[in-house]
Specification:
The chain has 16 helices and 4 strands. Helix 4 runs antiparallel to helix 6. About 65% of the residues lie in helices and about 5% in strands. Mean pLDDT is about 80; it is low at about 1-70. It folds into 2 domains: about 1-30, no CATH class; about 60-455, no CATH class. The protein is mostly helical. The termini are far apart.
Length: about 475
């Protein structure tokens, strides 16, 4: 650890402060011991990618974070207070669901379109839901008691306490989102049990999305036309709900992508704006902690799946926080050009591409757009010869790459730099498209050879009978 004291003559924004740089390498940075599902025996590269990314984000943070958040202790306290309780609740609750799910019939049976070979417990989404809702409920109660004076004010760091009124004022929107997510989770749980048709599910999704937009969960997108903004916001919510539901086709895939996205969005909310957006960042970090707890049980080989209960909840919470978050600041607070509004599309480029491509394939083949199949990017990678675990890690890495592009948008000053970032994201998607096309061609070629072989066999048998 190196401690550098800046003198009064230092012109940097941290003049007169003590800056602490911590350098540690490898496993020692995490205590040097086993990390459960992330231990060296089950090495989870996505965990180390996220660790490396966190260091990158900290080193590349703009001056606004160093000057306004200043107190590193407050930031660390905030992150740990959000992530650790959610992680513990989710890990314990998901473990409990592994025992309870078989007893109540929450089991996902193997099928031709599925990757797993043995019956696997569902219900992990309940653990994710508890990992998000319970910590936020406790935080809401503590904030309310501090605000009333029932609890001493030193329960909350001073830098966070000065935002308490604003957080409590906006917490109603947070609970509206969680209520909508709960409705979708209940619907997903019923679907996991009895397999609901897709039309009533889609109707419920649109109703929940419309209700959320009606209470203020809407984006502006610079249109100034309320009806258009309402429609775009509803569509955004529904698309993200189904994107993460579609992605839940391999162990650790949907939850890993949601974890990467939530961490990157939280980083933007905390480090890239004139002032941190504590409420939105807090919800995203709580979601990240809950997903980490779930991944302890869902990392390949998975012992439990999240099911529709979890995928719908993840999708609506993440989509809503993106809408409620601030990516571009107007007026005097503006530090970045309007190009930064593309950040959410960069972070979610891979799941949105997968959703759109799969939907298009099913419609072109005149099949139900919501009938599961093996048209996803992850399935195509397996068809190319990758193991399912490696296919999942490949999709994670592609998501992380486009997500880092979102951070780079805040490092460029105008559209000329932004177009380079956009080109980077499009190149990643082009690689994905090429791999998908090659894999699809191989599958069609194999199917054609099988049909030809069957036809030849039938002809030979008929000739022999004559």
């Amino acid at each position: 650890m190196t401690v550098i004291r800046r003198g009064s003559g230092d012109p940097t924004p941290n003049s007169g402060r003590v800056v602490v740089l911590i350098r540690s390498g490898g496993q020692e940075a995490f205590g040097g011991g086993p990390l459960g599902p992330f231990s060296s025996e089950k090495s989870s590269p996505v965990f180390w990618w996220l660790a490396a990314y966190s260091g990158f984000a900290f080193l590349c943070r703009p001056a606004t974070m160093r000057s306004i958040t200043g107190d590193v202790t407050t930031m660390v306290f905030f992150i740990l207070a959000c992530v650790v309780p959610a992680f513990l609740v989710s890990a314990v609750a998901t473990g409990a669901m592994r025992v309870l799910s078989p007893k109540i019939g929450l089991i996902d049976q193997p099928a031709a379109r599925k990757v797993h070979k043995a019956p696997t417990a569902l219900g992990g989404g309940i653990g994710i839901w508890l990992g998000v809702v319970l910590p936020l409920a406790v935080v809401q109660l503590v904030a309310w008691l501090v605000h009333r004076g029932t609890l001493p004010s030193d329960w909350i760091p001073p830098q966070l306490a000065r935002h308490l009124d604003g957080v409590l004022f906006r917490s109603g929107q947070m609970w509206a989102v969680l209520a909508g997510g709960t409705v979708l989770s209940i619907m997903g749980l019923i679907d996991d049990l009895i397999d609901l048709p897709w039309k009533p599910r889609l109707a419920v999704q649109f109703c929940v999305a419309a209700a959320l937009v009606s209470v203020g969960v809407r984006g502006t997108v610079f249109l100034g036309i309320p009806a258009a903004e309402f429609a775009i916001s509803v569509l955004w919510l529904v698309v993200l709900m189904n994107s993460f539901n579609f992605l839940d086709n391999m162990d650790g895939l949907s939850s890993g992508i949601a974890l990467i996205a939530s961490i990157i969005f939280a980083t933007i909310m905390l480090t890239s704006l004139s002032e941190p957006r504590w409420l939105v960042a807090g919800v995203l970090l709580v979601l990240a902690g809950s997903l980490l707890g779930f991944l302890c049980h869902n990392w390949p080989p998975a012992r439990i799946f999240m099911g529709d209960t979890g995928s719908y909840f993840i999708g609506v919470v993440l989509a809503s926080m993106v809408v409620l978050g601030t990516f571009y600041e107007h007026g005097g607070a503006a530090q970045h050009g309007r190009h930064v509004i593309l950040a959410p599309l960069c972070v979610l480029a891979v799941p949105l591409y997968d959703f759109a491509s799969v939907l298009l394939i099913r419609l072109m083949e005149r099949r139900s757009p919501f009938k599961p199949d093996k048209s996803h990017f992850s399935h195509r990678l397996v068809e190319l010869g990758l193991k399912p675990k490696h296919a999942v890690l490949t999709v994670h890495l592609a998501t992380l790459t486009t997500g880092l592009g979102a951070l780079l948008l805040y490092r460029v000053t105008d559209w000329s730099g932004a177009w380079l970032v956009i080109a980077l994201v499009l190149c990643v998607l082009a690689i994905v498209a090429i791999l998908e096309t090659v894999a699809r061609g191989q599958v069609e070629s194999r199917e054609s050879r099988v049909e030809s072989s069957d036809s030849s066999s039938a002809t030979s048998s008929e000739s022999a009978r004559r």
